[in-house]
Amino acid sequence: MEYRSLGRTGVKVSPLCLGAMMFGPWGNEDRADSIRIIHGALDAGINFVDTADVYSGGVSEEIVGQALEGRRDDVFLATKFFMPMDQDDPNQRGSSRRWIIREVENSLRRLNTDYIDLYQVHRPSPDTDVEETLGALTDLVRQGKVRYIGSSSYSGSQIVEAQWMSRERNLERFVTEQPPYSILVRGIEEDILPAAQRHGMGILTYSPLSGGWLSGRWRKDSASAPTSSARPGARFDMTSPANQRKLDIVEELAQLAEQAGMTLIDLAIAFVINHPGVTSAIVGPRTMEQLESYLPAAQVNLSADVLDRIDKLVAPGVTVNPDDNSYGANELTAQARRVSVCCIGRQEK
Questions:
Q1: Alpha carbons 103 and 119: distance in angstroms, whole number
Q2: Residue 114: CB partners within 8 Å, gap ≥ 6?
Q3: Is 148 labeled as catalytic in the residue annotation?
Q4: Are 80 and 88 a contacting pair, CB within 8 Å?
Q5: Homologous superfamily of 4-348 in CATH?
Q6: Which pLDDT score is estimated for 162?
Q7: What is the pTM assigned to this prediction?
Q8: Tens-digit pLDDT profile for residues 242-287
Q9: Rounded distance, CA 287 to CA 315, Å?
Q10: For the chain, does the N or the C end have fewer beta carbons within 10 angstroms?
């Protein structure tokens, strides 16, 4: 497996990053099996593992920590904070200094490690000053508990603001961004990827199979197609014209993959890691079979003809269903726009 530079850090990581969200009650409750999957990924050459405190309420971190015993120094280990860890306590979440300083200790304990290679803000916070967050993370880097810091699901403007604040206040900067990216969700090509590239950031993308749409399991007019009752939410509402369009595109992509001599999974993951701005694609297997189906994509190079045909199906910068965009703290929602107008009006009075 060929390794890539993680932004300008000098660290080399695999083009596939093992996502650990499915290890634990959210996915695979068999700890021993989850550990075997992690070991299988490492044996295949993956040296990059990403998890989060919130995954299965901390169980994912515990499983990863157990799996890496004796192999910790061979792995670039990433985790995240921000999501609620206690639904009844409003302070056991977010990106305040108070919570970051407390939660990093919890993650270190669950991961059974003295340091975290990459500590990421899971989502941007509209009510926390980015200087507050960067200041706390800088202290963790200087204490040796964290090696690098990163962001996840930030908009282009939030990426730039954070980089500016780091430079202005002499704080550690985000060296990575973790956005959603797939053939069906290409919105980040418009500004997030260019902004990250200009600032020398590594990009580790999540959901390269677009939440299962590109796994080959769901096909048009098939009994296995997703239903809104089985997968609630606008992303899987099959009365939506945008989702019907996605099924049409999946059919054409499946034919394209077959003509190119690969699986739809190979095509989908290879498309993501073929982008020059992407460092690694996060794959989140629940079973060993799923892991084995993801691995070949690391060796696939897509021809210009195949890429051109993909562009005709989904134009660069386009997300087929806007509900699939999960980044930017809802900056473009109607509510956010009205709040902005309201606030501007008050300031002018």
A1: 11
A2: 108, 144, 145
A3: no
A4: no
A5: NADP-dependent oxidoreductase domain (3.20.20.100)
A6: 98
A7: 0.91
A8: 889 999 999 999 999 999 999 999 999 999 999 999 999 999 999 9
A9: 33
A10: C
